[in-house]
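Researcher: Sequence recovery benchmark, item below. Answer with residues only.
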């Protein structure tokens, strides 16, 4: 089985570089192309003073967009994320790998599967942080969602549980789920 269209889903964790390097290595070996995806999970630090100053405290008709609360912060975060994705794309194109980027605002889980389906991906490469069971139950697992909901094969790269303490820790392949759905 060859992987011509590789979707690599990146977060901004320490293992992102290794996940991206693995995707580029596969794309180079297979003569494939890469779609780099990042979901910016943005939640504003809403200050109670904002609600007091604007009279929104106690108002049941609050329909203001998130960007109305802190438009500069959201815009700056989007610009930083887009710049980071462009750096990744430049690294790939320098190696002769055709590359596209997608940046979305929101939860990455379903977006990764939707983009893979719409783009016709052959493989999704995603990292997995080593959350303990309790945080994983509360936070959910993007890699678990993708593994079970993807329309194509999935390569999950396990992050080293010591990566928080050791920035030189490496990422290793956890497995490949082969089979189209």
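Model:
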């Amino acid at each position: 089985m060859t992987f011509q269209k590789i979707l690599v889903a990146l977060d901004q964790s320490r293992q992102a570089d290794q996940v991206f390097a693995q995707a580029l290595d596969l794309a180079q070996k297979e003569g494939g192309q890469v779609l780099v995806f990042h979901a910016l999970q943005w939640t504003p630090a809403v200050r109670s003073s904002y609600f007091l100053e604007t009279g929104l405290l106690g108002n049941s008709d609050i329909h203001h967009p998130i960007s109305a609360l802190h438009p500069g912060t959201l815009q700056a975060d989007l610009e930083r994320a887009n710049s980071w994705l462009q750096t990744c794309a430049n690294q790939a194109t320098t190696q002769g790998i055709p590359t596209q980027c997608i940046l979305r605002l929101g939860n990455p889980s379903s977006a990764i599967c939707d983009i893979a389906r719409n783009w016709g991906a052959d493989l999704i490469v995603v990292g997995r942080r080593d959350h303990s069971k309790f945080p994983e139950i509360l936070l959910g697992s993007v890699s678990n969602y993708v593994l079970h909901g993807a329309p194509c094969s999935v390569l999950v790269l396990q992050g080293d549980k010591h990566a928080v303490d050791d920035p030189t820790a490496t990422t290793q392949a956890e497995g490949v789920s082969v089979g189209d759905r």
